[in-house]
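Morning, I've got a small favour to ask if you have a moment. You're getting the sequence in one-letter code plus the fold written as tokens. Thanks so much in advance, here it is:

===
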Amino acid sequence: MNKLKITILTGPYEGNTFEFEYDINIGRDISNDLALPLDLTVSRKHAKISINNNQFFIMDLASTNGTFIVTKNNLQKLKPNNTTNIPKNTILKLGNTTILIS
């Protein structure tokens, strides 16, 4: 199984890096694998990142403020409860937190 490396680029946890070898949930609630309790713009259960056949997938869990893929010129909002393939080195925005997937 591939390793999922998450580097927090902006937000209350800026500069932190985490590595996972399993599917993770991200959110404000401390029960999440990647808990962001200081970012009040992140939902309690915000998003899920899955690893399958060395690929990464993200699903917004119907969060209040949405999950976005950051590109050079804009933000692409993900549809709630839909799985989206994300390549390595994708930048995601969840609330006021921006993360790099590598």
Notes: Residues 12 and 38 are 6 Å apart (CA to CA). The chain has a mean pLDDT of 95.
